[in-house]
From TrEMBL:
Keywords annotated in UniProt: Membrane, Metal-binding, Transmembrane, Transmembrane helix, Zinc
Compositional bias (Basic and acidic residues): 544-572
Binding site for Zn(2+): H354
Protein name (record): ADIPOR-like receptor IZH3
Gene Ontology molecular functions: metal ion binding; signaling receptor activity
Predominant cellular place of this UniProt entry's protein: membrane
Membrane as UniProt keyword: yes
KW Transmembrane (keyword) present: yes
Gene Ontology biological process: intracellular zinc ion homeostasis
Positions with biased composition (Low complexity): 93-114
Amino acid sequence: MSTATETFTQEDAVLQNRFRRQGKSLPGPATAMSQVEELLIEKLDYFVSSIESKLDHFDSYFKVKKEESKKQAKQAKQASKDNSNKYLSVRDINSNNGSSTSSSTSASNSRRNSTSSIASLKEISIMKLNLVQDRLRLIRKSVLSKGFTNLDYLYNLLDDQYNYLFNQTLPEIDNQLEQENEKGDKESVALNKEILSGKIINTISYFEEKLIKIDDYIREKTPLLEDEMDTSDAMYNKLRFFNFNRALKNALENPRGLIHYYELPLSWRENKYIIEGYRFSLKHTSMLKSIFKMHNETMNIWTHLVGLGIILYIAFVHFPSTNAFSKNNMWDNLAMYQFLAAACTCLISSSIWHTYSCFAHYPSRQNFACIDYTGITILITCSIIAVEYCTLFQHPNLLYLYMAFSIAMGVFGFVFNWSLYFDKPECRSLRIGFFVGLSTSGATALLCQAYYEGILYSIKFFLPLCYKSFVWYGLGVVFYGGLIPERWRYDVIIEENIGACQHHYNIEDVLEDNVGHAGREEIQQIEKELEEMRPHSHAQHGAVVEKMEDKKQEEEEEKVDNKVEGDEERNNGESVVDDDELRFRQLINKHFKKQPVRTPYANSWLSLWWVDYFLASHNLWHICVVLGVLGHYSSVLNMLDGLN
């Protein structure tokens, strides 16, 4: 066994000896019964209040053993039944406490009321003490039946010693109680009750100290950088989903089912200039029904649904009636139909995404976003393939080579849209590489045509694409990247973080998907503010986030206005944050306002209040996309008509 194991074994022996000495030096039954009971209550209070945070701390290190749970639960139940038949009831605790202990009892009332397992401790009996012991057995089962993934020897050592405390000492107590009960000596019965109480206290103390020692050991062995990353990720996740329940509640209570921007959790915030008209629900039926309701995504949905109807009309009515369709063969027409099918896929995917953009189940929401990205990838790939087919029609070998490259790039784009690895910030350069690769494919195809057919012919062939299609895509990027026109609204006061929220995006930002992440920017801003308020560890910042959440929940449940209660936070029994409560309230109110701050011009048409529902930047981008698709169809139709 390793040196660490031997060290822990020596420490266990020291702990056990100390607890045995404490058990033997308990005060006499006649004079100190109430003190023992009070000590038991205090220890149970503290233990139950702190065990939850301790268990949370171990979640990343333990793994549940399901095959042992039923067996141990059955053993605990049988032990409870056997022990309860051996012991008798005790006198009322109030007759033993006296006036000398009334003050200590009232001092712990607040903690007793918060713990359901000891809420009514007016009587303490041997049966109840055994139930407490059984409860400790269940705690042991839930904690110690889980093994360390990298520290198995610690688990084995702790399990053995804990089994010794619970199992090895119980027969001695049982024998003593049976002997004294046969004699009928009341004083001896009280002594036995006291022995059992002391044993429970010692068990709790041993358990707590073992948890502390394992905490220290894990903290010592875990690399500092990994620990900082874990705590930072935990704090980041808490910030992402802060205000989640309140948003669901407010959306449910609103007659229209809508909430404003500051009620959304940070992960759902995309454009800080769109204030009103957000949906937030966990029900698929609510999302689907919202297609036919008015909210800030209605125009985004219907611009593409209308565009879908136009494309279907073109595919089944207009294109079959053209001269190009009648004079060209099946493969020529297939080049057009694959583009039209890609356009339909893109428009449907976008409509689905905007229908579910405010879906409260975040993993599902991310999947719908991937559907949108996939539709865009398919449209870009098939648009370029259609142009390549017409451009290199007279050169089949080159045509097959270019089409194979474009298809390979499209498959690669499909993979990274659905891959968690390619979604990381450090992989965003691959997104640019994907779009550059597709663009290069189309551009070099035109260069090949210019080489074989002449520059003037190539320019005449390519120019309609520029003023019929590309100009609309470019104009849409200007609106989308510049957040135009909503960035000029002045019906509400929108705070700007000059350092992080400039909201001027270029084409690279659009390709890297850096547009519309106001929630991510706010998380970074909150983290920076927390650093300025209390420049300590990430763990303490996580406690600050918990405190913010607690304050927000208290305001909702208790309807408290402008009055801060001094709640005692528990993190291993210590107060973590001691900053001024007003600063936390200001931080909450800044990022999670109850209502947007209106200006005197809120009702003026020129204040652009209507961009929440009509002609926002994303609406204009959708219109430009539909026009770009129609322009691309017109250009490719002319190209097909000119094929020999």
